[in-house]
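Q: How would the structure tokens look for this protein?
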Amino acid sequence: MSESLVIQGNSRKEQYLSLLPQLKALVEGETDKWAALGNIMSAIKYGMNFFWVGIYVVKNNELVLGSFQGTVACTRIAFGKGVCGHCWKEKKTIIVENVDAFAGHIACSSESKSEIVLPVFDKKGEVVMVLDVDSEHLAHFDQTDEQYLKEVVQIIEKILNT
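A: Here is the predicted structure in token form.
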């Protein structure tokens, strides 16, 4: 396992293509899912220079804060509430260009301006957690982020479902 990441490329696509194999190598052979998830969150945050990256885990019909990197975060989110709860309810990726314009947005940090949240599924196709990525810039996320963060979600699903 490497102790540092080397992210290369000028475009976001190139940066993701540089990050993904390093993520896979980082968690390869790790048997503790929380250790692996913690390293994935750190690698995404610092590798891609995002404001906040974390997971919320479905527990007792609410989302509970799991591994994350960034400022202090909301601990619990109800089903269907905020961007994360909406992602869970709809079972699909949600991209928000301006969190202040999202009805029901839960402001864990006033510095967060845009967000992308992706569902993570178990073997039965149920959402078991969401991957939440925030930026301090408006309209920071697009289809490129969705495409490559879905590949990150596949790595997470493999960890959870093996």
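The domain at 12-160 is CATH 3.30.450.40 (Beta-Lactamase).

The longest helix spans residues 143-160.

Upvote if useful.
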